[in-house]
Design brief:
Largest sheet: 9 strands, mixed
Helix content: 40-55%
Number of strands: 13
Distance between the termini: 82 Å
Number of helices: 18
CATH class of the largest domain: Alpha Beta
Strand content: 5-15%
């Protein structure tokens, strides 16, 4: 050891060691780290278009875990069904950003799995290929689908996406807690008044007056704060595309929200929800699974977590109550398959999309993900074998004329953020519902009018170029 110290005290040896270490680090960086990073960030640059003599389709998908495995079963079936095309799925994190980067760089995948809310924005940016001609060629028609899911792939009268696994929302409730509160576990609330009354009976406090179990709160799980107006007859845009965030139904919904904050006490509610985070949702600590929340609005996917983390839970599902005159109100959403602009093999990619849309293959995918099919025609065998005990109710909600969706416009994410902000101001008792919604209406209206002027100018420019040609 003393000998080593003497060597390191020699300036030449010390400097040489630093140089050699730097060279080694540079070799590792250039030979290992940078190539791996580049492959992760720009996988399409490293792809081969051929796989054992077949055209290879690179498919980017956000799904991992059992959802990704479900789609892989469909891919394997497609690859085995013919000898011309080979589909290879690549799980992609942050797919929203990376998809746009790949299109801008003129090196996109052949197809991708996106969420419906992305479609208008991506289509407006010119990042998606219109599927109308291919859909016609492969005899894929709107009348074969539940309209709510077909419409989510359409922007400005052009088809840009086709659905895979859909979802709707419904009231989930705890039957054991219902019995303990003296309520009939087979009779969930049918009206908003009944919901509010049952929530009060189901709420329990500890000896310090703090909430131990909440019957219901509109603030949890917090994913659809922007959408409560739908259950009150509200809307965010009208039939002419005008912004209507201060609609009377939206005002009523926030009055209802604020009544909960006043009734149960904002501080007590905040203390109770303080331990609930997004990370707790997909875990045994989910407050619905630990029976700390008796009723909540949730999606068809909730069964997956109940089955995994608390299969003995006594639970039920029903349509979430709405104002008088409205029945079977729900919020619908879906995952979609798209083909990017400048995709290398659009027709072959669509051949796979068409394969997924076939009833048998769609049912395979949706069964494996424990969701329902977006198609109008569903086999009886699908319903009989499906593990979700309430799956048909979610499908029936999707059929409802009161199945709502996000506004299919490019600025939806901004609208959602503004409505969530209005919810927070009302929930925290900082503003009245009217004041909060007036503010967001003015902000979004100005932004929407500005965006429309940009779109009109772009459209005129394109028409002018076409005219010159």
């Amino acid at each position: 050891m003393p000998q080593l110290k003497r060597k390191l005290n020699n300036p030449f040896i010390y400097f040489s060691a630093i140089v050699l270490a730097g060279i080694a680090a540079l070799v590792v960086l250039t030979a290992v780290i940078l190539p791996c990073l580049a492959f992760d960030l720009f996988p399409s640059y490293f792809r081969s278009d051929i796989h054992e003599g077949r055209i290879k389709i690179e498919y980017w998908e956000k799904w991992t875990g059992f959802e990704g495995e479900a789609m892989q079963k469909v891919i394997d079936k497609f690859n085995q069904s013919q000898s011309r095309i080979w589909v290879e799925k690549r799980p992609i994190s942050r797919i929203e950003q990376r998809f746009l980067v790949s299109v801008a760089g003129k090196n996109p995948p052949d197809l991708a799995g996106l969420q419906a809310f992305m479609i208008p924005n991506f289509a407006e940016k010119g990042a998606l290929k219109s599927l109308d001609e291919l859909a016609s060629e492969f005899n894929i028609k709107k009348e074969d689908y539940l309209s709510v899911f077909w419409d989510m792939g359409v922007y400005q009268n052009k088809l840009y996406a086709l659905p895979t696994t859909p979802a709707t929302l419904a009231l989930h409730y705890n039957k054991r807690l219902f019995r303990e509160a003296g309520l009939d576990p087979d009779k969930p609330p049918q009206t908003l008044d009944e919901l509010d009354s049952m929530a009060e009976k189901l709420t329990r406090y500890n000896n310090k007056g703090k909430i131990k179990t909440i019957g219901f709160t509109p603030s949890y799980p917090g994913w659809w704060l922007w959408a409560w107006g739908f259950w009150f007859g509200g809307r965010l845009t009208d039939e002419k595309g005008r912004i209507t965030m201060d609609d009377a139904g939206n005002v009523k919904s926030l009055v209802w929200v604020q009544n909960y904050a006043r009734k149960y006490g904002l501080v007590r509610l905040q203390e109770f929800e303080g331990g609930f985070g997004r990370l707790l949702f997909a875990s045994p600590q989910n407050p619905f699974l630990t029976e700390q929340v008796a009723m909540e609005l949730q999606g068809v996917w909730m069964f997956n977590f109940i089955d995994k983390y608390n299969p003995k839970l006594e639970w039920g599902v029903a349509p979430f109550p709405a104002v008088e005159g409205l029945e079977n109100v729900t919020l619908a959403d879906c995952d979609d398959l798209v083909i990017p602009t400048d995709a290398p093999h659009p027709r072959e990619a669509f051949e796979f999309i068409s394969f997924v849309q076939q009833q048998e293959n769609m049912e395979l995918l949706c069964m494996e993900q424990r969701k329902f099919s977006p198609l109008k025609k569903v086999s009886e065998d699908f319903w009989i074998k499906h593990p979700h005990p309430y799956i048909k109710l979610f499908y029936e909600l999707a059929e409802s004329p009161n199945a709502k969706t996000q506004p299919m416009i490019p600025m939806f994410q901004q609208m959602r953020e503004e409505m969530n902000s209005a919810f927070s101001e009302v929930w925290l008792l900082k503003k009245t519902p009217e004041q909060a919604l007036e503010r967001v209406q003015n902000r979004i209206h100005r932004a929407w009018e500005s965006q429309k002027r940009v779109e009109e100018a772009k459209s005129k420019s394109q028409n002018s170029r076409l005219g010159k040609k």
